[in-house]
Design goal:
single chain; 380 residues; Carbamate kinase
């Protein structure tokens, strides 16, 4: 693995100074008082000051913040990690308004308006909600308002921490959604290392990653800090999502002085993950959506869609789950697509020839499960 800055790294760092749209994710361990618990108000004001400087430069900045569950837990006097889902949701409900109030006051000192956006995974998976949320963020940015994102843990139907991964994935979805050029993930680790530095004193920092490899994934550590759930593995998953959107990502220690401004100016801090070729917005949405069902298709059908042909009902061997038309489904664990059929319709016509479909489903029924433009391969 690379441990030195290369020519590519130098060029990528220089490009950060020209990033116009920036997403900053701040982890729970970063905004809490070191060794004392509770939100560090002084740190939040320091973040607001850096945001204000970037906005004055004409740059657009979005915040994704953790800390609501931890703040609620502290408010209730809880001193250990809260694992029970209902209690975590209650802590989030208590902590969200307290956390946002801190941010509003801090941004206000620097003449910045902020807006809270609480989202769930369902809003990312529904295409109409996804597009509407994008328009809302664009409008806020056009009016120099700082959007502040957090997962709506108090109403999420998924187990907290599994839906987005302590806001790491959420920050990547936001960066992907708004076509950000830079995502800064701030936590209590300063970089990706070639092994766990907590266990290996000789672990080497990796300053630049052009492509995420199996070695990088193997080197990633486990869970995060006391009230957080995001470890290095969730951060690398977030990096992969952002890179698909052509967005560069920096993972760095959030307590480094003036860290946001310094990264945005191109200073070589943390680990920089270079951008990949940007996928089309619709393909990014499809690739990152939660599937509503699963299909198993035969080898011939798989080869056909690999060659960018449509998937026909004849190639479908089995259908799992219940879903409506236009739902995202996972096929053979390697491709996601938007199904023209509901699960019930697909069970009725799978293994059938095209000329048999209308006799089963009625006149005007679709003849293909999905066309190539409605598919996204997870390994590409």
């Amino acid at each position: 693995m690379e441990t030195q800055e290369t020519g590519d790294a130098v060029a990528a760092r220089a490009a950060l100074a020209h990033a116009n749209r920036i997403v900053v994710k701040i982890g729970t361990a970063t905004i809490t008082k070191q060794g004392k618990g509770g939100i560090d108000t002084a740190y939040i004001y320091h973040v607001a000051e850096q945001f204000a400087e970037l906005v004055r430069e004409g740059r657009q900045v979005i915040l994704v913040t953790s800390g609501a569950i931890g703040m609620g837990a502290r408010q209730l006097g809880l001193t250990k990690r809260v694992t029970e889902v209902r209690l975590r949701q209650a802590c989030a409900a208590i902590g969200q308004p307290l956390l946002m109030d801190e941010y509003r006051r801090a941004f206000g000192v620097f003449d910045l308006n902020s807006a809270q956006l609480l989202v769930t995974r369902d809003e990312w998976d529904d295409r109409a909600s996804y597009l509407n949320l994008r328009k809302t963020v664009e409008t806020l940015l056009e009016n120099s308002v700082v959007p502040v994102f957090n997962e709506n843990d108090s109403v999420s139907t998924a187990e907290i921490g599994n839906a987005f991964g302590d806001n790491d994935r959420l920050s990547a979805y936001v960066a992907s959604k708004i076509d950000a050029e830079l995502l800064i993930i701030l936590s209590d680790v300063d970089s990706l290392y070639d092994s766990d530095p907590r266990e290996n004193p000789n672990a080497q920092r990796i300053p630049y990653v052009k492509e995420i490899s199996a070695e990088h994934l193997a080197a990633a550590g486990g869970r995060g800090s006391e009230f957080s759930t995001g470890g290095m593995k969730t951060k690398l998953a977030a990096v992969a999502i952002a890179r698909d959107a052509g967005c560069r990502v920096v993972i760095a220690h959030g307590r480094e002085p003036n860290i946001i401004r310094r990264i945005a100016s191109g200073e070589p801090l943390g680990t920089l993950f270079d951008a990949a070729h940007a996928l089309k917005n619709r393909i990014r949405w499809l690739k990152n959506s939660q599937p509503r069902g699963r299909l198993t298709i035969d080898d011939g059908a798989l080869a056909a869609i690999r060659e960018r042909n449509s998937l026909l009902p004849r190639g479908v061997a089995s259908v799992e789950g219940e879903f409506a038309r236009n739902a995202v489904v996972l096929v053979n664990d390697i491709v996601k697509l938007i199904s023209n059929y509901s699960s019930a319709e697909l069970r009725a016509v799978m293994r059938k020839r095209s000329e048999e479909i209308e006799a089963i489903l009625g006149e005007g029924a679709p003849h293909v499960v999905a066309r190539p433009e409605e598919m996204a391969f997870l390994d590409e």
